[in-house]
Design goal:
The protein has 273 residues and is of the alpha+beta class. It has helices at 26-34, 72-84, 163-171, 209-221; strands at residues 2-8, 11-17, 44-50, 56-62, 67-68, 92-96, 102-108, 114-120, 125-126, 130-134, 137-145, 149-154, 181-189, 192-199, 203-205, 228-233, 236-242, 249-254, 256-262.
């Protein structure tokens, strides 16, 4: 089984060609191959399938085998995958996801391969601030939907935020029956945000495209930033712009192929317990 390892700002996924036969147990496969040191190592698995109404369909799984609705960094890499591999000659695509269709614009580098991708991430669903009690402490944040759930916390310095301790507690808090992604974001100025993310099903990642958009939407609701910002994450920066009329967020960032590989005689282990 051949695969392609790809990343957007260090948010890495294993890509499979869904036009070809694949193993039946994809959630288990995602769990096994995503394991760092014991598998290929990634934040999850993405299968590129034929589109039903769009050009292609992105089926994604988190590193724990759970299925996700949408991934901003992952969908940029889908655009690069299908163009660079000759599955399409189009530079404007519709990629379907479990969160609905997304429009992609592909930007080529000097080698004729995709270097950057702009994604119409849709209009965010922004909800009222909520106060949640975690281990006796009250945590205030704003739920935001980008087709997948987010809980955005404004803070002074994400570098000092308790991402790895508070993040998993909020992810699985009873207030979020589907679990949630958790963003720790600071507003440097009206055009610059800094962000760390605890991703549902994957833990802390170097970048999260939907998380960047959710944080941008929350900061916009607070009147803290302009319609165009740069979001700085541990893995790099994303450019975000909100359309004044439709409220859609346009995200532009890199997509990179790390390497191609083949799983030979790969067997899924039996789950214990």
């Amino acid at each position: 089984m051949r695969f392609t390892k790809m990343e957007g700002l260090g948010n890495d996924y294993i890509y499979l060609n869904g036009f070809e036969p694949l193993p039946k147990n994809l959630p288990r496969l995602a769990l096994e191959v995503s394991r760092r040191r014991f598998g290929v190592g990634a934040d999850g698995l993405v299968v590129v399938r034929p589109g039903r109404r769009g050009d292609f369909f992105m089926e994604m799984y988190n590193a724990d085998g759970s299925q996700g609705e949408m991934c901003g960094n992952g969908i940029r890499c889908v655009g690069k995958y299908v163009y660079d591999k000759g599955l399409t000659k189009k530079r404007e695509l519709i990629v379907e996801t479990a969160a609905g269709p997304r429009k992609l614009e592909l930007h080529l580098g000097g080698d004729g391969l995709v270097e950057q991708v702009t994604v119409d991430m849709g209009a965010p669903g922004i909800f009222a601030q909520r106060t949640i009690t975690v281990e006796g402490k009250k945590i205030e944040g704003r739920p935001v939907s980008m087709g997948n759930p987010h809980f955005v916390l404004l803070c002074e310095d994400p570098a000092q935020a308790p991402v790895t301790t508070l993040g998993p507690l909020l992810e699985r808090h009873p207030s979020f029956p589907r679990r949630t992604n958790v963003e720790f974001v600071s507003v440097e100025n009206e055009r610059s945000l800094h962000l760390r993310v605890w991703e549902r099903g994957s833990g802390e990642t170097l970048a999260c495209g939907t998380g960047a958009c959710a944080s941008f939407a929350a900061a916009r609701r607070e009147g803290r930033c302009s319609p165009e910002v740069t979001v700085h994450l541990p893995g790099g920066a994303l450019k975000l712009r909100q359309e004044p009329a439709g409220r859609h967020i346009l995200m532009t960032g890199p997509a990179r192929t790390v390497y191609e590989g083949e799983l030979s005689n790969f067997r899924l282990t039996t789950k214990k317990g």
